[in-house]
What we know:
8 strands, Rossmann fold, globular, two-stranded parallel sheet
Amino acid sequence: MQESVVKDLALAEAGEKRIEWARRHMPVLDRIKEEFEREKPLKGARIVACLHVTVETANLITTLVAGGAEVAVTGSNPLSTQDEVAAALAARGLFVYAFRGENETEYYDCIKKALELKPNVSLDDGADTIAIIHKEHPELAAQMLGGCEETTTGVVRLRAMAEDKALLYPVIAVNDAETKMMFDNRYGTGQSTLHGIMQATNFLFAGKTVVVCGYGWCGRGFAMRAKGLGANVIVIEIEPRKALEA
Ligand SMILES: NC(=O)c1ccc[n+]([C@@H]2O[C@H](COP(=O)([O-])OP(=O)(O)OC[C@H]3O[C@@H](n4cnc5c(N)ncnc54)[C@H](O)[C@@H]3O)[C@@H](O)[C@H]2O)c1
């Protein structure tokens, strides 16, 4: 494996503090970690995690390592990577290839470096690792026990591959879990999208006109929050029942 590629290892201490703060709000994962420490159910698992490199993911990775897995971490979106979190994980000795603002070439290079772990499990948020394994490393596909896919777009891509009989190993569609859609898609994305826009623009939402394209789980959550802040919300939706609901 190549050395980790992160922005600045000196950020590790700040990253650990933020990871610890998040851990205190993730009691279920903490309980699973205790069980994993005793039972080591993931011994022998070599996991490539191509996920948003955030404090929550860091706690997930900690849990996987506690279970005995070897893990290589790469970012699933160059704009969501928290550099201090990447630094903290790298400083613990994990293989981490992620920094905020990667260009397209750097983004795919990071995934390819993570694949040097010769994984037998993939965790994806957007199906990019699975896509690269299928296109460029079919030899890895043969040894894959399975994978997980987090998001709607990734699941759509994978269902198309499965229908074409082109999906070479089984993947759990995490996004199909009702609790995932109800909480992450609706409330999580509803909140974080608004937060992102506010931080980037400093807009006051009251009195603004907001157009939401698609009234699915994320669209509903975002529309609800934008309305709550006093925006005039317009929804565009092609599915008649959802349009009616909007
Ligand atoms: N944390 C995150 O960043 C995060 C989390 C969850 C989902 N997502 C992403 O958000 C997107 C939406 O996810 P979701 O779970 O709400 O999906 P969804 O399937 O529940 O909703 C999508 C909606 O868009 C509508 N739609 C499709 N094409 C349209 C068009 N041309 N015009 C208008 N409406 C159209 C569909 O009818 C559907 O109601 C996906 O790309 C998903 O991957 C991001």
